[in-house]
Amino acid sequence: MFASPPPSALRHPPRVPRPTPVPRVGGAALPLPGPGAATEDFWAEVARRGTPVVGPDPLGDPAHRGVTFLWRGGPGTRAVQAVPNKLADPHDPRATLMERVPDTDVWHVTLRLGADWQGTYDLLVDEGGGPASGSPEYAAWLRTRRRADPFNSRTLPRRWGGEPLHWAALPQAPAQDAWSLPCPAGERGTLSAHAVPSARLGGTRRTWLYTPADADGVVAGPANGGGTALPGSGRGAALPGSGRGAALPGSGLPLLVLLDGEHWGPVLGVAGLLDGLIAAGLVPPMAALLPDSVDADTRWAELTCRPEYLAFLTEDLIPWAAARLPLTTDPAHTVIAGQSLGGLTAAWAALAAPHRFGNVLAQSGSFWWPNGPDAEWLTRTIASAPRRPVRFRLSFGRQEWVALPAARRLRTALAEAGYEDAEYHEFNGGHDYLCWRTELAAGLPELVPGPVASEPVASEPVASEPVASGGEARAAEAANAGLPGAAAHARTAPGAAL
Fold first, then answer.
1. Are 28 and 120 in the same domain?
2. Residue 90 sits in which domain range?
3. Model pLDDT for residues 63-77, shown as the tens digit of each residue
4. Which neighbouring-strand residues pair with 101?
């Protein structure tokens, strides 16, 4: 039996200062107007180019870029902070506060970033009416003053609602079209919402079920195994097999369990990603279960290595789905995936139930957990437990300075515990769904390859390294592609470097 987790912990990661300065540089990626100058032509150029404005590296290194964030201020503007995810410290706004060109409406700050960076960002605008800038409460107040960037139409939905997040990707960032792979209408799967019975979780738990077009048979009604279809879920018959290269004949559909399903399913549209990967032959036809995390309090209570949540997954949710679809019972063809606390839970669930989950796909896992005397509990447990038949694909943002050291220690623990086939790599980004979409699209074909992904690609660099090597993955050269609103998604060609 895998060790039991500690019963409770602080509900936030350790709070440590940024270990290196924010890479701020002087000047801007485009000519700025002079003090007191008219600015209409300047803002017209900004509107044409979009923000943030990307220019050559101020130090002349082709592997870097100068990235200028801008705000058009008004008469009452006192301060503006740019907050790129995990590049800036939201608790200390000083490092990324914008400068004002004197006697103009131009506010700006320029960062020197690797040309493979991508990430989301906020703009925080002090227009008066708050505490003094030097007061202890100023940083917390400023974090409530988010404003949309009027010159950047590229957005992602924010977790738990609210105004969308803007994002940017530099020219060498991972390519971003796996979420836009074509799929003929007749070969698209269905995403349906259900209330899955679970006494362990207090009644029922909303879960989205992705059924591929190649599923054998139909999605059964409530009479066949319980559960209630939610209104507007689109529940209905699965389409007959399309003849695409179905892997694992006779052994059932491979299964993906993707945590935080309320965001991945109806908000980010993961069904479109699965449709495209299946149609391209990069993964076999597979089913997916996306359980709802409900809210922040429930998420903290359940996605922290809780045995009752694992029992829900293995004894309630998967059997419920197996009553409706011909699912595999082979853990080698079952993936559990998650991000942040979901990544922690995915890794723990596979180690605690290797008979059910044989593959872990985790991004930015909260391996620091718990915050307190039992810190990094999972890492210490791996070091003292026998090796499980589990394959890991872990990735982490190089800008996640608080949690990255713990992730690297977990990588070392896996290597020393004999997980030779585990993969770990780091991408130039932070703790956000822009990066995680890319990693999810890249990881699925590696863990459950379809007929195309199974073919070797001689000319492509390897995307990640075995954990034993401890190296970082190299970034692929790729053109930046705009994503139209919440329905657009990140691209990573499986087999290519990240």
1. yes
2. 24-169
3. 999 999 999 999 999
4. none
- In angstroms, the CA 380 to CA 367 distance is 10
Of 169, 188, 223, the one marking the end of a domain is 169
Residue 315 is part of a domain; what is its CATH number?
Answer: 3.40.50.1820
C-beta separation of 227 from 194 below 8 A: yes
pTM for the model: 0.85
Q: Are strands 106-114 and 24-25 parallel, antiparallel or unpaired?
A: antiparallel
Q: Is the Cα torsion angle 429, 435, 440, 443 positive or negative in sign?
A: negative
Same domain, 152 and 32: yes
- If asked whether residues 307 and 213 sit together in one domain, one would say yes
Residue 317: exposed, middle, or buried by beta-carbon count in 10 A (0-12, 13-18, 19+)? buried
> Is residue 494 in a domain?
no
Whole-number Cα distances in Å, 202 to 13, 104, 199: 28, 58, 5
Look up residue 56 and give its two tokens: 């050559």
One-letter amino acid identity for 76? G
Q: Which of 434, 418, 430 minimizes the C-alpha distance to 154? A: 434
Q: State the angle between helix axes of 433-447 and 270-279 in degrees (0 to 180), rounded to the nearest 10.
A: 30
**Is 1 contained in some domain?**
no
How many domains are there within the chain?
2
Q: What is the pLDDT of residues 429-468, one digit of tens each?
A: 999 999 999 999 999 999 999 998 766 433 333 334 344 3
Residues 365/284, Cβ–Cβ less than 8 Å = no
Q: Helix or strand or coil: residue 68?
A: strand
Rounded to 10°, the helix 404-416/377-384 angle is 10
Mean pLDDT of the region 6-18: 79
- Residue among 230, 300, 305, 293 at smallest CA distance from 264: 293
Q: Is residue 496 part of a domain?
A: no
* CATH value at residue 102: 2.60.40.10
Q: Are strands 203-211 and 287-291 parallel, antiparallel or unpaired?
A: antiparallel
What residue type is 105 in one-letter code? D
Answer yes or no: do 214 and 273 share one domain.
yes
Q: Tell me, yes or no, whether 152 and 301 share the same domain.
A: no
Give the model confidence (pLDDT) of 298-325 as tens digits: 999 999 999 999 999 999 999 999 999 9
The pLDDT of 2-20, averaged and rounded, is 79
